[in-house]
Design goal:
Layout (H helix, E strand, L loop, with lengths): L2 H14 L7 H7 L4 H12 L3 H19 L4 H7 L5 H12 L3 H5 L25 E6 L2 E11 L4 H15 L2 H8 L4 E7 L5 E9 L9 E5 L2 E9 L4 H17 L9 E5 L10 E7 L2
Antiparallel strand pairs: 1-6, 2-4, 2-5, 3-4, 3-7, 6-8, 7-8
Helix pairs in contact: 1-2, 2-3, 5-6
Length: 281
Amino acid sequence: MGWVESLQKAIDYMEDHLLDDMDMKQIAKEANSSVFYFQRTFALLTDVSVGEYLRRRRLTLAAQELSKSQCKIIDLAYKYGYETPEAFSRAFRRQHGVKPSEVRKNHGELNAYNRLVIQVTLKGGDPMKYKIVERESFQVVGVKREFSLAGGENLKGIPLFWNDVHTDGTNDLLLSLDNGRMYGICVDKSTDQKMDYWIAVEYGGVAPEGLSAFAMPSSKWSVFEVHGAMPDAIQKAWKQIMSEWFPSGHYQHGGTPEMEVYSDGDPSSPDYYSEIWIPVK
């Protein structure tokens, strides 16, 4: 089964169980993926987290039911996964801009989020430059933080992590070890929807004080060139890889850590060069 079909299978599973207390591991299993890679890919392709998609879809269905029936608001709250009517009303108003009671009186407009259908659009005007590289295991040293995948917390926390590294002097220490190439490494912990994110450099010696060492496993990599200012250029490249390259190619994700490689230079420059390294098989 191809990646697009697997992803659609997971979406169909979510839609069939919207009123259930779903387990993220089971959702990812429908896509033949780990929790980490499924949530990451879903967010890259849709610009929302899995949790946010489920919330929007449930509140869309709740609004439709509210406007077409005489069901009690308290019953709707429990039906769509809220512990109290007050929590349901707050979430409902954030999405739709009106209170549930106002919908019952046919006041205000509703925001509907429709069921997702994954489609692949073939594009030829924006080529991707990549190469396949095989590397034996190598060591990096740096700093790491653990992030939750729930609600896209990792997407919010990682940029703040980079800011801290630049302000506390760690960035300068790392650059002194590896001539200007820094790695951002995503490591799937496969437990409790969590991941480790490393900011590191390649270094074969004993980790200096304040830094930790991590062994990157032997992998076959697809290495993509990225040209342009951060963060827009690398975010665009990730989306293109997931929406165009993987669906139209013969490779699958290798399951080992991914890397973003940042070169020395001005990250805000339109000519800035970086790379995305994705393990493949």
